[in-house]
Amino acid sequence: MSRSATTPCCATSISEPTGEVLISILLLWLGGLLRAVPTASPVPAAPTSVAAPDSLRRSVADSLLHVQCAGYSSLRVGRILFVGNRVTKEAVLRAELDFRENDTLAAATVSRRLEANRRRLFNLQLFHQVLVQPVCRDGELTILYSVQERWYIFPVPIFSLADRNFRSWLDRSDRWQRVDYGLHLVRRNFRGRNEQLLANLQLGFNRKYELFYEAPGYGRRRRVGFGAGYSYYRSHALDYATVADRLQNLRQEQDFPIERQYVTAGIRWRRTVQHLTALDVSYHHERVSDSVLYYNPRYFLSGPQREYLEFGLVSTLNQRNTFAYPLTGQYAQLGVTYRAFLTGRTPNSLTLRGRYARYVALGGPLYYSAGATAQLRFARSIAYPDDRAFGYDVLVRGYDAYVIEGRHLGLLQQGLTYRLLDLGKLQLDGLPSTRFNTIPLVFYLNTFADVGYVRQPNVTAANVLPNRVLASAGIALHLVTYYDWVFTLEYTRNREQQGGFFFRSQFPI
């Protein structure tokens, strides 16, 4: 249901021989740094006296507990209290904790455990901040979690470009007619149970009508959840082929060359906010106009329409310190997707995709990150809209203008980040609500290198990027601010001696 925002700005082609040298130096430098970082053994927990490297940087004072309950090797949890959760149900918060009343905790590790649970609550992404305060008396703990809730209703006007990124839109001669408008409505923390409602009413160049519901968990322990949704889409334009690794577009003023709709439902198994497994089943119906088949007769392999069932299983382990802009921890995701076509003339397909990322604190304001993504797709033959690798939700930075077709892909990314400037939380006068009157602003300087490869058994002569090593390197400025927003301005050069400035709105690894 989501799509990565990859919006380059003012990308230019530059043919300088120094670009390839720069990329090689950065790749070797970052590669050597990767070998120097210990990845086999877990990173030891930082002492509680050191600020935790997340957006809040709150820690529990060990000395206070030692003074209050000196001489105790273990402490019993007497009471767990929550304040500030006027909307959020207490059961949602308790389900994230790995301890309950009357549990016994080791005194030597209680502060680190309380901090880990604080981060879990913060990573629900329901609160601006989460604080924890323990009080100990006669070996019994009273634990207070204080939360500051966000605003949960977001009616956002839609005014967007009807292309996959800014560079692609800028290349169109009719660019100003290729815009979408409407209303995007999100209701987070619905009923105070961390449920989400999402609705789209989009008109203009692309018509979209959508309604989705997501509940991560029901019951006291909130382990089993549910998701469902419906989407209808049609557009006046469709990319029907790839030539020179760029999309070829068909526009019809009166007709809609593409129309598709699907309905989906699934169950979720959720151990905590850090571990989620989702099983979804969806029915899809897609249709293209005769004009599309005139330019690409095998767009759907056979005929102007197709129907299929899709079964998807995705398991995610997210142990990063913060989900929006991680600096420490690890992330792993494995997905399996099977498409069973109902027409009987299109071969079924199986897709496996995995991703792993590691984030390491190097000391002081320096942090290192590395990630790998791999995909394998199996089918006797694949229709054109399914035969895509790089250029959409997976990208080698610097190749934003291109789409690389292929069944199998591999991507390695790494970056070195320096905390440049932390302005803390700016107070806005005139806004009484604490949900809006404080704005966190943290700037990071980042240098990075990407290497990717797409395996395509049958490549047309017009496309040169499949079956070729793709590489890029660059430097970026990251801004982390309000409501988990991350803005990135980067300069990237790729192996094709092209460079440019790019703007993105998500954490890149």
From TrEMBL:
Gene3D superfamilies: membrane protein fhac, membrane protein fhac: a member of the omp85/tpsb transporter family. The keyword Membrane applies. Its main location: membrane. It holds the Pfam family Omp85. This is POTRA domain-containing protein. The keyword Membrane applies. Coiled coil: none annotated. It comes from the Bacteria. One of its GO terms (cellular component) is outer membrane. It is found in: Membrane. It comes from Hymenobacter rigui. Keywords: Membrane. Residues 75-150 form the POTRA domain.
